Amino acid sequence: MAHDPGRQVDETAISMLEALFTQSPIGLHLLDTDLRVVRVNTATPLMRGGPSDELQGRPVRDVYDIVEGGALEALLREVLDSGAPLLQRVVRARVKGDPPQERHFEISALRLQSPRGSVLGVAVTAIDVTARERARTRSEVLDSVRRYVGRTLDPAVTGEELVPTVVPAFADIAIVEVVEAVIRGDDPPQAPLPTGTPLMRTAFRSNRARPPQAHPVGDVRRLPAPTPFTQALTDLRPRVVALRPTAPWLSVDPPRAEAIHSSGAHSLLVVPLALRDAALGVVSLYRSGNSPPFDEGDRELAAELATHTALCIDNARRYIREHTVAATVQRQLLPRRPVTHPSLETAYLSVTGADPGAWYDTIALSGARTALVVGKVSGRGLNAAATMGQLRTAVRSLSAFDLAPDELLARLHHTAGQLAAERSHLPFGDPLRREALTADCVYAVHDPLTGMFTMAAGGHLAPLVVRPDRTVTVPGAPAGPRLGTMEGAPFAAVDVEVPDGSVLVFTSDPLLTAYLAESSGPLPSAPDYRERPLQDLCDALVYALPAGLGAGDAAMIVARTRSFPPDRFAAWPLDPDPAAVALARHRTRGQLAAWHVDDETAFNTQLIVSELVTNAVKYGSPPLELRLIHDRTLTCEVRDAGTAAPHLRHAGMVDEGGRGLFITAQVAQTWGTRYTAPGKTIWTEQALPRVTNPDSMR
């Protein structure tokens, strides 16, 4: 028989075509020009799961129940019309099964033409790339978790950051529950989790519009046992659970069982949030509907997600604990109540909870004066709170010497420099060594007798003065160097007039000060400056602050000035003559009688006046002045223009003098020297007995 090459080629082509339709693992379909199935290879059961003759003549939309990836029929129609091939288009489709599954297919399509050029139909290939796409999705989910989870230092918010990264990309429902003690910053309990440990539901997310929930977010409950959740918190191992209605553990937790049933979930992945054998909480992931059940690859991914989330929660917990300790230290170091004074009413305020390095203080000074202090130490946490306490103590100690504000800040700058030097000599492994120690501080002294306050600032802090006509000004004192830096520029003081009824605002945050200084800010618009309670004014300031201001946790003092009662102050000029001593004692006796001062205090005051005036006549320089101030204490002041500093002496048995200041120090509660531009003032303070008749003070 003669060999026919053409026939052999036809047989080879037919054999190859038959092999493709019977043995190829790649789904192959031939469609006519109406996109109906002409032939489909039967070696790929995932296409439909039935005999190929059932598909012949059916539209292609019956072959693929497309879930995601575009309208396949429209794409194939475009191939027919244009002749341009469709290459490697990934679509997601539902496939028959029990239960039905969603699979990923990579679709390619080519137009078929006869040798004469007429269009015959479309050849479509489909490759199951479900494993590849799931691996890609898992990689994207893990990358998203690492990028977006842990951006805040709040263990509750960390769960809220996690659930959007896994729903719907990895699961249909995600729930995060954290041990309540961890939310507060306490150490997590060691596994197995003790029975009855309360957990807080911190996050919930579902791909449904109105998802059922067993418990709302924020709810704190103890997990019923035994369940997959308690088991995961016992051995700290993730587990995949098929959700069958007959599962015995569902009866232990009826609310959760009802929510699972209502959501249609069929697969559960429970992952413990664990770190160093300690249980921080649990993540519950559900799949419902046509989503495939969780498999081993999903469990491995969930374990990685939970490890990262647990680390973020633990970091947040440590921050909360340190912040709590620092805040506790700060509360113990700061004054609980402001110093009350008839001529200066003050209130303390923390905006969103003051930074542990911020401090405020009011200090009673001699001569009915009051010092107002606000500052902020660099850094955060316990170290900042401890440094703040050191500087606040230094300010209080320096204020006892009646130093001018600029001189006090100069000495405080030196003290901060010494603390910074000590820090720089810490061991190299101590992280505190790398943190610079600097501080901003404003120190102001209010004198109600002159209606002025004198202030100096180190760094960028400055007070605000709101006068009775509602004008807001920032005193123009030149800012000195930040405390603790190497700058040696001098500090400068400025005197500012504050009429009766003025409001002074000191803040530890320059951004907040700048906002309050604006003409449209809350200060000029606040009503009733003179009579409104200061605490109400503080609340009004907080309510008026915009959310996007960017100011940190600020400490604030709000003060309102009052005129000093004129009937509680007396001043007399004195001649530089020994006869002035008797005259001063006589005037003192009369004034104390008018103030109804008790006899013992009046006798001691006359003795003090005699000694101080004698000392000023003998060693001071004119002009001389005697002042009595009936305030929270009874203050006696003798002024002169001399600059020589008096000092306490212990006179010998045969000495005729030298006992003046010694006697004064014995009968007075406290005494001191205050230097001013004209000279100096020697002052004493005596405690007054409790007044039983308020009318006697009028």
CATH architectural group of the largest domain: 4-Layer Sandwich
Q: Report strand order across the widest sheet.
A: 2-1-6-5-4-3
Largest sheet: 6 strands, antiparallel
The fraction of residues in strands falls at 25-35%
CATH class designation of the largest domain: Alpha Beta
* Sheet/helix structural class: alpha+beta
In the predicted model, the low-confidence regions spanning at least 5 consecutive residues are 45-49, 651-658, 692-698
Number of helices: 17
What is Rg? Answer: 42 Å
Count of β-strands: 27
CATH superfamily grouping of the largest domain: PPM-type phosphatase domain
What does this molecule look like?
- By secondary structure, the protein is an alpha+beta fold.
- It has 4 domains: 124 residues, PAS domain (Beta-Lactamase), CATH 3.30.450.20; 189 residues, GAF domain (Beta-Lactamase, 2-Layer Sandwich), CATH 3.30.450.40; 227 residues, PPM-type phosphatase domain (Phosphatase 2c, domain 1, 4-Layer Sandwich), CATH 3.60.40.10; 132 residues, 2-Layer Sandwich (Heat Shock Protein 90), CATH 3.30.565.10.
- The protein has 17 helices and 27 strands.
- A hairpin with a 5-residue loop joins strand 5 and strand 6.
- It is elongated and about 145 Å long.
- The N and C termini lie far apart (143 Å).
- The C terminus is likely disordered.
